[in-house]
Amino acid sequence: MKVVKPDKVAKVKPRNKVVEAFFAGSNTSEDLLKEIHSLAATKHDFLVTTRRDLHRNPELMYNERMTSAYIQKALKKMKIAFTTGWGVNTVPDRIPGEGGYGIVADIGTRKEPCVLLRADMDALPILEKTVNIDDFKSSNPGVMHACGHDGHTAMLLGAASVLKGMERSIKGTIRLMFQPAEEGGAGAKRMIEEGVLLEEPKPQHAFAMHVNPKVPTGIVASRPGTVKAAAERFEITISGVGGHAAMPHLTVDPIVTASSIVMNLQTLVSRSLSPLESGVCSITKFDAGSAFNVIPASAILRGTIRALSTDVLMVLKGKVEQIVTSTAEMHGCEVGITYSADWYPATRNDEHLYEEFSKEIGAMVSVSGEVLEVDPGMGAEDFGFIAEEIPSSYFMIGQGSGTDPPTDVGLHHPCFALDESILPQGVELHVNLALRALHMLGEIDSD
Questions:
Q1: Per-residue pLDDT at 447 exceeds 70
Q2: Under a CB-based contact definition with an 8 Å cutoff, are residues 187 and 104 in contact?
Q3: For the chain, how far is it from start to end, CA to CA, in angstroms?
Q4: What was the pLDDT predicted at 276?
Q5: What's the rounded Cα separation, in Å, for the pair 322 and 261?
Q6: Which residues touch 398 (CB under 8 Å, ≥6 apart)?
Q7: CA diameter of the chain
Q8: Are strands 392-398 and 220-222 parallel, antiparallel or unpaired?
Q9: Do the beta carbons of residue 55 and residue 145 sit within 8 Å?
Q10: pLDDT at position 36 over 80
Q11: What region, left, alpha or beta, does residue 97 occupy, with left being phi > 0 and alpha being psi -120 to 50 degrees?
């Protein structure tokens, strides 16, 4: 990885008396909460400007060159050293782009204890239709920040600014992970393979957050255990014998075969899993033929399977193969199945960490004074790769109450809009989690 240091480094790191008193045990938790709230509020204009700049210039996974350059420029201005070159694409034959646009920065003593804060930064292949944002609407046609990653990156940069302003007072190390390729590219897995969790000091806990348009603005939500599903993508190629639509008896029709596969897969969950377990199989693309009077020689199906545990995902994956191959054989077609380069594990909140620590911190920042416990979601999230390696917590910040434009439109929708009022709250959550986790770990080490 390439190490980048700021042009000018302050000889004396900045300090914060409230933070020092908190680590020394001579200040209250409430004092620290008020201090972080005040500091985060001062970052409002920076957060909005940063988020809008990123929103205006969205980039797809493994192609986040300008996004990475923007983050690097911001970190340099904050006098924060960092490394680049993280998240190299290992499957360029399947996903376009060379990758390597991830960034890692450490703030603090560069010694244990250490915690990690992560933000994703890639966009989606969606044509933006959000209203009333002409000043910062996507300038990249067909690409859009429709999942809030521009906001996530802005929040972590805001947290970086706050934490750098108190660096001398921090007892431990806070690792910032700006991650590319979350939207199906397993960017977190690539960075893990490259050593982001092995560099000294090794992170002992990790934290991440995501905006949620289905939760009222300012409400922090999460749950113990599984938060997001495990997921796998597949493509099924059905090969038959084409011919004239007037003479189907002389063909082996791949459309009929593919249609049977689609229908047979509808029993996958109901007849493979216990009624007490959750899973879903969705066919999202059916591609066959190009003329009204020709039965094509092949058809292609694409879709996903999802479950709330890796074990159940593997059961469903095996059943998909059985259903597809047996159905194709019955119709006389040949069939092939290819899967994604990296299936996503379920994202799980470590139950002990969540119940004994993280839940309380989330409640401090939530406008309701408590964490809203939500059901597990069937969406996938590659923070799950990190949560498999070290005890972690994943939060959602509600943003569904904005009105101009409406901010309750779902993720991955062309009209998705971010409620920018929650940006300082994201900074507060990051900073509180980081400082309080270091304090907790320091107390454990001293026992």
A1: no
A2: no
A3: 36
A4: 80
A5: 11
A6: 212, 214, 215, 216, 217, 218, 219, 220, 221, 372, 422
A7: 87
A8: antiparallel
A9: yes
A10: yes
A11: left
Pairing of strands 279-288, 298-307: antiparallel
Cα separation, 131 vs 415, whole angstroms: 7
- 77 by Cβ neighbours in 10 Å (0-12 / 13-18 / 19+) ranks as exposed
| Band of pLDDT at residue 446, cut at 50, 70 and 90 | low
Query: pLDDT (tens digit, 9 = 90+) per residue, 368-411?
Result: 999 999 999 999 999 999 999 999 999 999 999 999 999 999 99
Bridge-based pairing of strands 173-179 and 114-120 is parallel
- Least Cα distance to 4 among 92, 58, 99, 85 occurs for 85
Q: Do the beta carbons of residue 376 and residue 227 sit within 8 Å?
A: yes
Decide which of 444 and 439 is more confident: 439
